[in-house]
From TrEMBL:
It comes from Staphylococcus borealis. The lineage of its organism: Bacteria, Bacillati, Bacillota, Bacilli, Bacillales. This is NUDIX hydrolase. Gene3D superfamilies: Nucleoside Triphosphate Pyrophosphohydrolase (3.90.79.10). Keywords: Hydrolase. Belongs to the Nudix hydrolase family.
């Protein structure tokens, strides 16, 4: 079974809204993020994915959730890591129009309704935190 890592950013604006993107591949609504490429750290991948999808430069904060799933049909074991992230400029522009059809800042209640794969409110994640530390290259 192949291992896959996917990172997501939980970004809240000054009004308390959450940024969601709508995926063109039929995946529906999600937090911005995506697959970690070979050689990337989790933070490098998250910064790249968020910039590609939204045009935003983010500051990555704590880990707030780790989920995993296995698909025997696709022969993959996926680890999903959600980080809190901050932005200083909220101006968005979809960079990957072939992957993202739209993005929206939504109140938490509306975001909760669109993110069907979580069994509780995003409010829980906003209060979670675990330190992430990149130990760098170790010989």
């Amino acid at each position: 079974m192949k291992d896959l890592k996917v990172v997501y950013a939980l970004i809240q604006d000054e009004a308390g809204n959450i940024l969601l993107v709508h995926n063109t591949d039929g995946g529906g609504w999600s937090l911005p993020g995506g697959k970690v490429e070979y050689g990337e750290t989790l933070v490098e991948a998250l910064k790249r994915e968020v910039r590609e999808e939204t045009g935003l430069a983010i500051e990555v904060k704590d880990v707030v959730s780790i989920n995993e799933g296995k698909s025997t049909q696709m022969n993959v074991h996926t680890l999903f890591i959600m980080f809190k992230a901050q932005v200083h400029d909220y101006t968005t522009e979809i960079q990957m129009k072939d992957e993202i059809s739209t993005l929206r800042w939504l109140p938490i209640e509306e975001a909760d309704e669109k993110l069907v794969y979580y069994h509780h409110s995003l409010r829980v994640f906003l209060n979670n935190h675990a330190t992430y530390y990149d130990e760098g290259l170790v010989d």
